[in-house]
Amino acid sequence: MTSNQWLSVRVARKSAETADIVTLELVDPDGGMLPEFSAGAHIDMEVPGGYIRQYSLCNSPQERHRYLIGVLNDTAGRGGSRSVHENVRETDIVRIGVPRNFFALADDAFRSLLLAGGIGVTPILSMAEELSRRGANFAMHYCTRSVEKTAFLDRIRSSAYAERVQIHLDDGVLEQRLDMDALLSQPEDGTHLYVCGPTGFLDTVLKIAKTSGWKDCHIHFERFAAASADVVSETPFDVVIASSGQTVRVPAGRSVVDALGDAGFAIPVACQQGACGTCLTRVLDGEPDHRDVFMTPEEHAMNDRFTPCCSRSKTDLLVLDL
């Protein structure tokens, strides 16, 4: 679904999960049902201050009367999460995109292994709810810094799947910490791995899983954002608009989206970090320098699409299907 399908919803409840995480319960202002979603889905949300941010839905997909999101106040971020914490209030009407899912459960999984780090637990919770409802075979591991920073703790403890969840605290005794190497050392045929969390956590899990022989098609993950590029190493290049033949120069330190915008070509964007796929654009000629975390390595190798919000070009020229 495209990012221009927007809904107006009301903030029915805003609750503090921890000192730096709040949940927002979003409902239809007229009391109607909301569009369906599947476990692992997220929404785009217009945040006060002109931001558009993506938040995973963390409630059960069976709940059509509400969407539930969790938002970490990221002091090192670009201001969106801080705006949610400081400016969004109960009864406010906010605009959101219809749910989209790039982190879905595999239909053919014999068993599912769910790994969450910090706020990355939000889509994992929705998955646990759905797998539990299906009576599926799964286990969940949730890594956090301390009990005080563990969001949704009461919900997990009182859930129907509580016995399937192990919580690992950084400040806890050594015996309860997650031994990732041991957990992932022997991939079983038919087991699918799902992981979401901060970059360091995610990279560690993926490295161990691949070293241990997990098949790429059995590893599913979602990043919060792409890694920051080294602007100093960037070089200018040209993009050509296929429909008109117009050439637009993209200088060092300037994104393709911004350069095209200056030339009068508006491309829909949301996260502006290569994480959501909203700006995905077809490439007709040239080789992109992929810097997104939305596409798979196999999709990158095809070089027929790229994310102009953050990606650049390895060649002097890119021809875009615009």
Q: Could you describe the 3D structure shown?
A:
The strands form five sheets. A five-stranded parallel beta sheet has the order 9-8-7-10-11, sandwiched between helices. The protein has three domains: 6-97, Elongation Factor Tu (Ef-tu), domain 3; 111-222, Rossmann fold (3-Layer(aba) Sandwich); 231-320, Roll (Ubiquitin-like (UB roll)), CATH 3.10.20.30. By secondary structure, the protein is an alpha/beta fold. It is built from seven helices and 18 strands.
Furnish the topology, listing elements before pairings.
Blueprint: E1 6-18, E2 21-27, E3 42-47, E4 51-56, E5 67-72, H1 80-87, E6 93-97, E7 111-117, H2 121-134, E8 138-144, H3 153-157, E9 165-169, H4 180-184, E10 191-196, H5 199-211, E11 219-222, E12 237-241, E13 247-250, H6 256-262, E14 281-285, E15 288-289, H7 297-302, E16 305-306, E17 312-313, E18 317-320
Parallel strand pairs: 7-8, 7-10, 8-9, 10-11, 12-18
Antiparallel strand pairs: 1-2, 1-6, 2-5, 3-4, 12-13, 14-16, 14-18, 15-17
Taking all residues together, what is the mean pLDDT? Answer: 90
CATH architecture of the largest domain, by name, is: 3-Layer(aba) Sandwich
Shape: globular
In N-to-C order, the SSE pattern is EEEEEHEEHEHEHEHEEEHEEHEEE
In the CATH hierarchy, what is the class of the largest domain? Alpha Beta
**Main beta-sheet annotation:** 5 strands, parallel
- Beta-strand percentage range: 25-35%
Q: Structural class of the helix and strand makeup?
A: alpha/beta
Distance between the first and last residues' Cα = 19 Å
**How many β-strand stretches?**
18
Low-pLDDT sequence parts? 227-233
Tell me the number of structural domains: 3
CATH overall fold name of the largest domain: Rossmann fold
Strand order of the largest sheet: 9-8-7-10-11
Number of helices: 7
CATH superfamily of the largest domain: Nucleotide-binding domain of ferredoxin-NADP reductase (FNR) module
- Fraction in helix: 10-25%
Radius of gyration: 21 Å
